[in-house]
Amino acid sequence: MTEWPVALRGTTETVVTTRGPNDRWNVAALGVRAPEGDGPATATTWGNTRTRRNFHREGGGNVQFVDDPVVFADAALSIREEPEPVLDAAAAWAEVDAEHVGTDEDDGTRREHWELKPVESAVVRESPQTTNRGFNAVVEATVAASRLDVPAYDTETLRERLRFFEGVARKCGGEREREAIQRVRERADGDW
Predict the structure, then answer these.
(1) Low-confidence ranges of the chain (pLDDT < 70)
(2) Is residue 1 a part of any domain in this protein?
(3) Cα–Cα–Cα angle for 160, 164, 166, nearest 5°?
(4) 3-state class of 153 per DSSP?
(5) pTM of the shown model
(6) CB atoms within 10 A of CB 159
(7) Looking at 81, 105, 123, which one is the last position of a domain?
(8) Helix 133-146 / helix 69-77 crossing angle, nearest 10 deg
(9) pLDDT at 149
(10) How far apart are CA 62 and CA 85, in angstroms?
(11) Of 16, 116, 173, 191, which is the most exposed, with the fewest CB atoms less than 10 Å away?
């Protein structure tokens, strides 16, 4: 069995590419939950996303670990397709089989649960692990922005989070984090 190219713990935010019916690779954000015990890593898709549809049709995709906040923000909040499955921005990646293991609803939003099993993986570049509060704020802002139209979440609470995370990204991030949070603002209507 192929191993993950990085250590997973908790929920690791990744960028996933899945092949669509047009043979192009849809780029999206995907939270991958670390395995518990000897079990597989898991992920949940929310709503009728391209990732969900492509997982059903193709049975998998490519989970990528990126360190560029702009690439992550674009994956999380825009529709992007690429001709190749692995992005230039990937520091590591794993081609995965995605097995559907359940469906439920959260306040009217359909959730589908997946087990992810790597079949091939690679580390493209190794670099020291850093913790950048600005990048983390961008990730949290994309999560809040993606839930603005979900009935299970309070819109004003989400907007408060967006304002807070924007401030952190601008204060604690570098140029790429500031560009990424600006893209979040533009793609999430910017009315915070």
Answers:
(1) none
(2) no
(3) 115
(4) coil
(5) 0.90
(6) 17
(7) 123
(8) 0
(9) 84
(10) 7
(11) 191
Residue with tokens 């439920």: 104
Do 66 and 107 lie in one domain? The reply is: yes
Q: Quote the pLDDT of residue 192.
A: 74
| Residue 2 covered by a domain | no
Tokens linked to 162: 């967006």
Residues 6+ positions from 12 with CB-CB distance below 8 Å = 6, 31, 32, 34, 65
Predicted local confidence at residue 1, as pLDDT: 73
Q: Do 140 and 119 share a structural domain?
A: no
Q: Are residues 87 and 144 in the same domain?
A: no
The pLDDT value given to residue 180? 97
Domain count for the chain, please give it: 2
Are 15 and 107 part of one and the same domain? Answer: yes
| pLDDT value of residue 30 | 97
Q: Which domain holds residue 161?
A: 133-187
Nearest CA to 143 out of 26, 30, 17 is that of 30
Task: Kindly state whether residues 109 and 164 are assigned to the same domain.
Answer: no
Helix, strand or coil for residue 138?
helix
In a domain, 50, yes or no: yes
Residue carrying the six token digits 């999206």: 28
Shared domain check, 163 and 90: no
Asked if 34 and 41 count as a contact pair (C-beta separation under 8 A), the reply is yes
Which residue in this structure is represented by tokens 């992920």? 43
Q: State the burial class of residue 72 (Cβ atoms within 10 Å of its Cβ: 0-12, 13-18, 19+).
A: buried
